[in-house]
Amino acid sequence: MTERLPTLADIEAARARIEGKVKRTPVMRSAVLEAEAGAAALCFKCENLQEVGAFKARGAASAVFALSDAEAARGVVTHSSGNHGAALAWAAALRGIAAHVVMPSTATAAKQANTARYGARIVLCEPTLAAREAAAARLAEETGAVFVHPYDDPAVIAGQGTCALELLEQAPELDLVLAPIGGGGLISGTATAVKGRAPATRVVGVEPAGADDALRSLLAGVLIPMERPDTIADGLRASLSERTFAVIARRVDDIVTVSDAEIVLAQRALWEALRMLIEPSAAVPYAAIRAGRIDVRGLRVGIILTGGNAEALSVS
């Protein structure tokens, strides 16, 4: 791979670019969950309370406000299962430009509605990566809009990394930071920020067992594309890119997986303890703790709750 990897300086620049546009989300703790985890300090970074209900607002704002005036005037286009599309639509509206979002026909009603709420033009397609990419390419050609990839974009990755910068300030001296892995944009930004600011802090990614391309790629030492992901965590069905795999291979200390049943139990536990309705993808890191995939006894742990755009019945 010839493209350079993201740096701490990139993330700091993104933070300056999006300051005043995104929220500094709170960090919450639960005595009940901490006792169950063996007296660990569990610091939940609540990106479910972010603009558009997800951390994706950070990367989208970073990318949109990195555009020149001439580029921005053309509008932006992307493909997304939901949160990135809504975030890009929100960021585009903030800058006063058009947004076109290709979504799979299987995208949840909540995520389609959230994207439409910010004024995006939504185009539905078949639920395959090839169909999404082809539809987005057609839209870009027809409209002249700038394509903003959901995660394989330097400005997007840098924006996502700003979440970890805040977490390290709000909960200093962490032993471990956990984040979910889908396409790898968040974990890439997180690992870059953490290793740049607190190199002794471990970074562990968590995947659904039915969408474990990052773990398989890390074990093989080469990128293994995702085929037929099967998980309730719809936001984590994307395949890594060469860029995000390269960051993971160099800066992420470990990857573990959890089952869909464990994800649902974690989602319910977080609702009961924190009174927050989060989407399944956001429950994945805590599921690894709850299921014993990671030993956090006595440790100080940062956990990124990535989004709250959930169907209400998913935790019933």
Structural commentary:
The chain is α/β, with parallel strands linked by helices. It folds into two domains: 8-56 and 153-315, Rossmann fold (3-Layer(aba) Sandwich), CATH 3.40.50; 57-147, Rossmann fold (3-Layer(aba) Sandwich), CATH 3.40.50. Helices cover 45% and strands 15% of the residues. The chain has helices at 8-18, 31-36, 56-64, 69-73, 83-95, 109-117, 129-143, 154-170, 185-197, 213-220, 242-251, 260-274, 280-290, and strands at residues 27-28, 41-46, 76-79, 99-104, 121-125, 146-147, 176-180, 202-208, 254-258, 300-305. The strands form two sheets. The chain has a six-stranded mixed β-sheet with strand order 1-2-10-7-8-9, with helices on both faces. A four-stranded parallel β-sheet has the order 5-4-3-6, with helices on both faces. The longest helix is centred in the middle third of the chain and has 17 residues, at 154-170. The N and C termini lie far apart (45 Å).
Low-confidence stretches: none
Give a short account of the largest sheet: 6 strands, mixed
Q: Number of domains in the coordinates?
A: 2
Shape verdict = globular
SS field, number of helical segments: 13
- As a percent range, the share of helical residues equals 40-55%
Mean pLDDT equals: 94
- The succession of helices and strands, N to C, reads HEHEHHEHEHEHEHEHEHHEHHE
| CATH class term of the largest domain | Alpha Beta
Structural class: alpha/beta
Q: How many E strands?
A: 10
How much of the residues is beta strand, in percent?
15-25%
How would you concisely characterize the structure shown here?
This protein has 316 residues and is α/β, with parallel strands linked by helices. It contains 13 helices and 10 strands. The radius of gyration is 18 Å and the shape is globular.
